[in-house]
């Protein structure tokens, strides 16, 4: 298992955290998601997976849940 971290903009509340968590855990290789919410900045999203995900795969999953963007 591997852990990856992504910086994500657009998370404003615990509802956003739940939305992003659900969107990412829907991806087959994802085992767990942990988010450090920064409502007025860039949040850190850590994903535990069986295989590494690309930035584009994470971004595509986030777009299904709302206006969230992987930065950096």
UniProtKB/TrEMBL annotation:
<dbReference type="Pfam" id="PF00403">
    <property type="entry name" value="HMA"/>
</dbReference>
<dbReference type="GO" id="GO:0046872">
    <property type="term" value="F:metal ion binding"/>
</dbReference>
<feature type="domain" description="HMA">
    <location>
        <begin position="2"/>
        <end position="70"/>
    </location>
</feature>
<keyword id="KW-0479">Metal-binding</keyword>
<dbReference type="InterPro" id="IPR017969">
    <property type="entry name" value="Heavy-metal-associated_CS"/>
</dbReference>
<dbReference type="InterPro" id="IPR006121">
    <property type="entry name" value="HMA_dom"/>
</dbReference>
<dbReference type="InterPro" id="IPR036163">
    <property type="entry name" value="HMA_dom_sf"/>
</dbReference>
<protein>
    <submittedName>
        <fullName>Heavy metal transporter</fullName>
    </submittedName>
</protein>
């Amino acid at each position: 298992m591997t852990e990856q971290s992504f910086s994500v903009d657009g998370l404003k509340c615990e509802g956003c955290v739940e939305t992003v968590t659900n969107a990412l855990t829907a991806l087959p290789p994802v085992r767990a998601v942990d988010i450090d919410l920064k409502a007025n900045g860039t949040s850190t999203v850590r994903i535990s997976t069986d295989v590494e995900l690309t930035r584009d795969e994470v971004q595509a999953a986030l777009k299904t849940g709302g206006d969230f963007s992987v930065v950096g």
